[in-house]
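for the recovery benchmark. tokens below, seq after
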């Protein structure tokens, strides 16, 4: 007979992903529109923090500006539109195109930056991937 030993472990959960910003409310508002999720009811312009609770994103105003490429970035997958439609929508919200990695055969992705220069990618939707 094999004996199985269960080891009790202490664990942690990620409560928020915190993003340093020059203007927490403005950047939080941009991402709120991108994700279609509201900022916390208590957040208002000029606040040093802004929270998109449904996405676990906390924006915090810091004095330093972004100076190098992100070490972590978001990969967005559109849920109700194509990749190209989503790129157009997010550009209209204030993003900029950093690197277009879309291929003629429909594969690939687009690298964009939010209004404060944080890079993120827009990939193909599940429908475009065939899954």
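predicted aa per position
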């Amino acid at each position: 007979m094999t004996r199985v030993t269960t080891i009790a472990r202490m664990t942690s959960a990620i409560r928020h992903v915190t993003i340093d910003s020059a203007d927490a409310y403005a950047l939080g508002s941009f991402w709120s529109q991108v994700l279609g999720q509201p900022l916390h009811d208590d957040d208002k312009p000029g606040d040093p923090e802004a929270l998109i609770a449904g996405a676990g994103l906390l924006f915090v105003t810091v004095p330093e500006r972004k100076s190098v490429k992100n070490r972590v970035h978001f990969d967005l997958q559109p849920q109700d539109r194509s990749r190209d439609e989503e790129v157009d929508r997010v550009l209209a919200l204030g993003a900029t195109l950093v690197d277009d990695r879309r291929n003629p055969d429909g594969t690939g992705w687009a690298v964009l930056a939010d209004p404060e220069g944080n890079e993120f990618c827009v990939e193909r939707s599940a429908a475009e991937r065939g899954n």
